[in-house]
From TrEMBL:
It comes from Oricola cellulosilytica. The keyword ATP-binding does not apply. One of its GO terms (biological process) is 'de novo' IMP biosynthetic process. This is N5-carboxyaminoimidazole ribonucleotide mutase. The keyword Magnesium does not apply.
Length: 163
C-alpha cells in the first residue's frame, strides 16, 4: 500500500522541523513517507517526484523548505494533488523569507501555507489528515477524538508553578 501523505523537504536540515508533521500523522494513524527533494540541488528529482506523485498513490503532499523556498510552489505546479507548504525557520531571516516565498503564489497554482517552523509542520499534518478524513470516517473519528483530548487537557484555572 502506498502512503497517503508525502512529506518532502529541501534538505536534511529541514527534518527537525518536518518530523513534527510525521509525528502527528503517526499519532492519527495516517501513512506517510518522507523524502529529501531539493528544488535547487536536485531539480530533476523534484520534477520526477512531482509529476509521478499522484500516480504513485499519494493523496496529499506536505512540502517544507527554507530561505528562497521554491519547493512547494514548483511541486504544486506539476501535480494536481493538494500541496501544503511549511516555511522552515531560516538562520538569516528567521523564516520570514521562507514564509513569503511560499505564501505569495500568483493566482492559479495554490499552496496551502502554514505557519513558520514546528507549529506549521504540526498543522500541515493535521490539515492533511482533515483532507483525508473527508473520505475516511474512521480517520475523521480519530481526528475528532484528538481534538477533544486537546480541549479536555486545558485546565479551567491556572496553577502556581515554579519559575
Ligand atoms: C533550503 O535551504 C532547504 O529547504 C533548507 O531549509 C535551506 C538550507 O539548506 P542546507 O544548507 O541546510 O542544506 O533549500
Amino acid at each position: 500500500m502506498p502512503a497517503d501523505v508525502a512529506i518532502i523537504m529541501g534538505s536534511q536540515s529541514d527534518w527537525p522541523t518536518m518530523r513534527f508533521a510525521a509525528e502527528i500523522l503517526d499519532e492519527l494513524g495516517v501513512s506517510h513517507e518522507a523524502r529529501i527533494v531539493s528544488a535547487h540541488r536536485t531539480p530533476d528529482r523534484m520534477v520526477e517526484f512531482a509529476k509521478s506523485a499522484k500516480q504513485a498513490g499519494f493523496k496529499v503532499i506536505i512540502a517544507g523548505a527554507g530561505g528562497a523556498a521554491h519547493l512547494p510552489g514548483m511541486t504544486a505546479s506539476m501535480t494536481p494533488l493538494p500541496v501544503l507548504g511549511v516555511p522552515v525557520q531560516s538562520k538569516a531571516l528567521s523564516g520570514e523569507d521562507s514564509l513569503l516565498s511560499i505564501v505569495q503564489m500568483p493566482a492559479g497554482i495554490p499552496v496551502g501555507t502554514l505557519a513558520i517552523g514546528n507549529a506549521g509542520a504540526t498543522n500541515a499534518g493535521l490539515m492533511a489528515a482533515a483532507i483525508l478524513a473527508l473520505q475516511d470516517e474512521a480517520l475523521a473519528a480519530r481526528l475528532d477524538a484528538w481534538r477533544e483530548g486537546r480541549t479536555a487537557s486545558v485546565a479551567e484555572k491556572p496553577e502556581d508553578t515554579e519559575t
